[in-house]
Amino acid sequence: MYLMKALSETEIQEKMSTIDGWDYQNNAIHTTLEFDNFKDAFSVMTRIAFEAEKMNHHPDWSNVYNTLTISLSTHDVDGLTEKDFELAKIIDALVS
Ligand SMILES: C[C@H](O)[C@H](O)[C@H]1CNC2=NC(N)=NC(=O)C2=N1
């Protein structure tokens, strides 16, 4: 299995400036999304799930009613890779 290279701290800072509304903390990037209701939250989760499956890159997330909390990291390298930022951008596009 080909493993992507974990990004360096400098590369992470650089990539953080290309996404809005995400925090970098504990080797992962995080966001919280709020919707009008549970149905909207779960509908977006379903759409994200299909994209994640296509990429074979899966979010760590939790949902409480209308709120979706997402953390992205690359478990295989125990860090952040291009894929995390790629998925973050896909998520942002889905909710914008
Ligand atoms: C074997 C399988 O391809 C890997 O475990 C994939 C699946 N989805 C994944 N998702 C995330 N977020 N990180 C990974 O390292 C990862 N690895």
Automatic annotation (TrEMBL):
Key words of the record: Lyase
Gene3D superfamilies: Transcriptional coactivator/pterin dehydratase
GO biological process assignments: tetrahydrobiopterin biosynthetic process
Gene Ontology MF term list: 4-alpha-hydroxytetrahydrobiopterin dehydratase activity
InterPro entries: PCD_sf, Pterin_deHydtase
Parts of the chain that traverse the membrane: none
Enzyme Commission designation: 4.2.1.96
Reactions accelerated catalytically: (4aS,6R)-4a-hydroxy-L-erythro-5,6,7,8-tetrahydrobiopterin = (6R)-L-erythro-6,7-dihydrobiopterin + H2O
Pfam families (alphabetical): Pterin_4a
Xref: NCBIfam families: PRK00823.1-2, PRK00823.1-3
PANTHER family hit by this protein: PTERIN-4-ALPHA-CARBINOLAMINE DEHYDRATASE
Family per record: Belongs to the pterin-4-alpha-carbinolamine dehydratase family.
Protein name: Putative pterin-4-alpha-carbinolamine dehydratase
Lineage: Bacteria, Pseudomonadati, Bacteroidota, Flavobacteriia, Flavobacteriales
